[in-house]
């Protein structure tokens, strides 16, 4: 433990402290003893003097002729008994009557007796011939309270003290023990310090502290140490610079340092913080903070500060670049999701706001919107608008705009180059477009513009405008390049949508031309229909209403799988074929068989290599309704079944055998017959009505049944409306719908007879027909009808087989029918002038509006129609 070591210095300090404590204790003890001696001497002297003064006989002795003789023996006896140094009795003038030294009796008392003469006790500390002493003067009073004498008692303090000398050995022993303990404690502290400081001495520790202090103030990272109560204990130079701390910041509370509230609260809380970014003045500081009492240390926290302003600026530029790449990626996947010109323009505007601009508008030529090539020099139409707010005073959607030649938009359209206007207020060419509107735009806060032409190859489709209002900085060169990239991607999608729109319009035009524009006149059914094109394009759904002989009506609905021109063209071919086949008056199953063969030949003609069929998948449902018998005969080829709504509102799906789709071949088709009450509604439809990507056909049929059940007694038109209300505005597939309400040709409008197979029966038929026409009020048609029936009945008797029947139907026309069991069909021919026969059918064809032959399971029917007068 050398004097330079910490332990030695502590030991010397402790020795000095112990010595000081011992000296202090001795001094304190002496002073205490002296004080106690004075108090004890005063108390004893007072007690002795008062006792003697109040003793019996003292007053009498004072009034005796020789007070000394009486009082001297008593005073000496009392002095020796009490241990005081003297008891002096005196008169009121201070002349002694008693004293330990007899030679001092009769002399003047040394001391102040004035207060005693006034009746008070006097205590004095004086130094007499016997040394320092304490004397007390007490008055002696008679019974009347008059002071008749004085008694003084005193004692030297030396006779009272002596305790201090007895306690000095104890103090010295305690000091020796303290020195021993200090030596042992110093040794223990020395070992602990050596262990904790790794053997470093004060010099090394001082040098290390100086190095650490230099490093602390030299690092480019702020360091703060805050106590548990929020006082700043230490702040290095960098912390002073970053936080702009005052010079006397240490030992002040962090809330008093002028910091912003958020940062001050963080420093005062002492909570854990990792790279929290705070804006302090104009700096972005990354703050890390940890408490100091995690492992038993003192309460408080240590905080480090890093200036991340430049790093944040660099990362901000990197973030901007990343955001622009993300925007370009989103443009690639988000623009052009549909083949719709308007929607594609809207996608461009929506993508740009608010990520790139505050407002975005797209102006296209009208020809582009309709699918045609743009015609320069014509007006543009505002196609899309998007913005951070909806009240911007820009041209609204649908507005036709003709940009003046000096405007940025016109220059962009003319040159095909982008035009950037940093400050719209200083752009006279733009303000010349519409001064009133442009002033409102400027007042609204829009201040910068980029105009980019929508170019697809050599075609300029329109312009895209990007407007800035909320952000104060104008558009820069990098943003112009980004705008051009966005618009270039959108222009390709808009041009694709334009081409699709043109092709779609052509296909729609073709399809509309192939579908029936008006329904033919007939009296058997009350019909309403709807056709909805698919959202994805023109499909192959079709329908038709075909009047047949005998007041019958054929309903047909079909679907060609696929979309586009090919499907529409194929649908037209099938519809034409059905028209032709229906003129043969074939049953539904036979007509579908012929249609199946036709589809097979179409596939072979269009695909001679024998690959997969092109039309296979076409479906069809064919139904014939007879208003006389109320029978409906149906056959279907892979088509959904019809729905039947009874007059009472009940809905059912009749069991109609499901044949294979057209074009497969090899399998026959079957028919089903339904007897329909008058007022029944027959609903024919394509699969687009009951089936789509979100539901299967069973769910669709259930929905259709529910919609029909809710329209009891409704007209066909109301039924169509109710069914289609549950469909989306643009379904995913074509929808064709026919609702036919049945009528009945009553017995009052039908007349029929059985005719014997003999020539004489012709006259009977003519007579019956004449009477019937007279009853119907059709006498004007009597001669013609008699002649027609005469020829037809004569041919049936001569060339056919019985039984022979005649039937008259009064519908929109007068229908004459002659039936027999022969399957031989008559042929119209032109007889020569020398021929005796062969003119019957020629006369029928000349007199009738239409005539023909249809076959039945039991033979054939030859019919002829005449218009009613």
Automatic annotation (TrEMBL):
List, for all copies, the residue spans of the domain called GAF. Answer: 340-504
Q: A Pfam family name for this chain?
A: SpoIIE
UniProt cross-references to InterPro entries, sorted A to Z: Bact_Sigma-Reg (IPR052016), GAF (IPR003018), GAF-like_dom_sf (IPR029016), HATPase_C_sf (IPR036890), HATPase_dom (IPR003594), PAS-like_dom_sf (IPR035965), PPM-type-like_dom_sf (IPR036457), PPM-type_phosphatase-like_dom (IPR001932)
Q: Report one GO cellular component.
A: plasma membrane
Q: Which GO terms describe its biological process?
A: phosphorelay signal transduction system
Subcellular locations according to the entry: Cell membrane
Any idea which GO molecular function terms this record carries? Answer: ATP binding; kinase activity; phosphatase activity
The UniProt entry lists the main location of this chain as membrane
Q: Membrane topology per the record?
A: Multi-pass membrane protein
UniProt KW keywords: ATP-binding, Cell membrane, Hydrolase, Kinase, Membrane, Nucleotide-binding, Phosphoprotein, Transferase, Transmembrane, Transmembrane helix, Two-component regulatory system
Q: Where is the PPM-type phosphatase domain?
A: 522-742
**Protein name per UniProt:** Serine phosphatase RsbU (Regulator of sigma subunit)/PAS domain-containing protein/anti-sigma regulatory factor (Ser/Thr protein kinase)
Organism, per UniProt?
Streptomyces echinatus
């Amino acid at each position: 433990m050398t004097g330079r070591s910490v332990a030695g210095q502590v030991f010397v300090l402790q020795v000095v402290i112990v010595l000081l404590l011992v000296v202090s204790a001795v001094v304190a003890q002496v002073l205490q003893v002296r004080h106690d001696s004075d108090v004890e001497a005063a108390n004893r002297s007072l007690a002795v003097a008062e006792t003697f003064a109040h003793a019996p006989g003292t007053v009498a002795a004072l009034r005796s002729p020789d007070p000394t003789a009486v009082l001297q023996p008593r005073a000496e006896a009392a002095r020796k008994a009490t241990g005081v140094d003297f008891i002096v009795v005196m008169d009121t003038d201070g002349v002694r009557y008693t004293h330990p030294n007899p030679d001092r009796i009769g002399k003047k008392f040394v001391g102040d007796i004035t207060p005693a003469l006034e009746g008070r006790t006097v205590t004095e500390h004086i130094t007499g011939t016997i040394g320092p002493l304490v004397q007390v003067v007490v008055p002696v009073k008679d019974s009347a309270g008059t002071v008749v004498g004085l008694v003084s008692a005193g004692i030297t303090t030396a006779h009272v003290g002596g305790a201090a000398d007895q306690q000095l050995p104890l103090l010295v022993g305690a000091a020796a023990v303290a020195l021993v303990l200090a030596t042992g404690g110093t040794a223990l502290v020395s070992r602990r310090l050596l262990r904790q400081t790794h053997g470093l001495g004060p010099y090394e520790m001082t040098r290390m502290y100086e190095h650490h202090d230099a490093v602390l103030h030299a690092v480019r990272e702020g360091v703060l140490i805050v106590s548990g109560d929020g006082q700043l204990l230490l702040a290095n130079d960098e912390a002073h610079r970053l936080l702009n701390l005052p010079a006397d910041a240490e030992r002040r509370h962090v809330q008093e340092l002028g910091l912003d509230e958020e940062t001050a609260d963080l420093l005062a809380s002492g909570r854990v913080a990792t790279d929290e970014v705070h804006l302090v003045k104009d700096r972005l500081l990354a703050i890390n903070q940890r408490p100091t009492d995690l492992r038993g240390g003192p309460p408080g926290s240590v905080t480090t500060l890093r200036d991340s302003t430049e790093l944040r600026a660099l990362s901000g530029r990197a973030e901007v670049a990343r955001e622009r790449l993300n925007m370009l990626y989103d443009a690639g996947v988000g623009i052009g999701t549909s083949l719709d010109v308007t929607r594609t323009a809207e996608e461009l505007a929506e993508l740009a706001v608010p990520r790139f601009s505050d407002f975005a508008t797209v102006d296209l030529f009208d020809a582009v919107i309709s699918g045609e090539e743009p015609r320069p020099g014509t007006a543009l139409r505002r196609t899309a608008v998007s913005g951070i707010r909806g009240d911007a005073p820009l041209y609204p959607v649908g507005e036709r705009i003709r940009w003046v030649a000096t405007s940025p938009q016109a220059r962009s359209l003319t040159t095909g180059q982008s035009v950037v206007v940093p400050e719209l207020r200083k752009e006279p060419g733009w303000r010349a477009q519409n001064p009133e509107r442009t002033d409102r735009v400027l007042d609204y806060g829009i201040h910068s513009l980029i105009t980019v032409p929508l170019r697809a190859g050599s075609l300029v489709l329109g312009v895209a405008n990007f407007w800035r209002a909320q952000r104060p900085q104008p558009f820069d060169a990098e943003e112009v390049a980004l705008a051009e990239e966005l618009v270039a991607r959108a222009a390709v999608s808009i041009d694709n949508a334009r081409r699709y729109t043109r092709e779609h319009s052509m296909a729609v035009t073709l399809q509309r031309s192939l579908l029936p524009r008006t329904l033919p006149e007939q009296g058997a059914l009350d019909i309403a229909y709807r056709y909805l094109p698919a959202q994805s394009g023109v499909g192959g759904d079709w329908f038709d209403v075909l009047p047949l002989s005998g007041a019958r009506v054929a309903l047909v609905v079909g679907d060609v799988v696929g979309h586009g021109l090919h499907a529409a063209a194929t649908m037209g071919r099938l519809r034409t074929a059905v028209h032709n086949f229906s003129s043969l008056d074939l049953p539904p199953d036979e007509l579908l068989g012929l249609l199946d063969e036709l589809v097979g030949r179409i596939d072979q003609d269009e695909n001679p290599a024998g690959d997969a069929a092109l039309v296979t998948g076409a479906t069809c449902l064919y139904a014939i309704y007879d208003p006389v018998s109320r029978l409906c005969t149906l056959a279907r080829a892979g088509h959904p079944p019809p729905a039947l709504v009874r007059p009472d509102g009940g809905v059912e799906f009749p069991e109609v055998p499901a044949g294979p789709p057209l074009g497969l071949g090899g399998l026959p088709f079957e028919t089903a017959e339904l007897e329909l009450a008058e007022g029944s509604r027959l609903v024919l439809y394509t699969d687009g009505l009951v089936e789509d990507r979100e539901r299967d056909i069973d769910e669709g049929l259930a929905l259709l049944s529910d919609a029909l059940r809710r329209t009891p007694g409704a007209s066909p038109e109301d039924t169509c409306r109710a069914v289609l209300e549950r469909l989306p505005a643009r379904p995913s597939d074509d929808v064709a719908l026919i609702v036919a309400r049945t009528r009945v040709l009553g017995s009052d409008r039908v007349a029929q007879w059985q005719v014997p197979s003999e020539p004489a029966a012709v006259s009977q038929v003519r007579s019956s027909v004449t009477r019937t026409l007279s009853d119907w009020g059709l006498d004007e048609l009597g001669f013609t009808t008699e002649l027609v029936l005469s020829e037809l009945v004569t041919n049936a008797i001569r060339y056919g087989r019985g039984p022979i029947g005649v039937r008259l139907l009064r519908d929109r026309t007068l229908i004459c029918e002659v039936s027999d069991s022969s399957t031989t069909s008559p042929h119209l021919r032109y007889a020569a002038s020398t021929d005796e026969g062969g003119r019957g059918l020629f006369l029928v064809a000349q007199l009738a509006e239409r005539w023909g032959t249809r076959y039945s399971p039991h033979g054939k029917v030859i019919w002829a129609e005449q218009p009613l007068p």
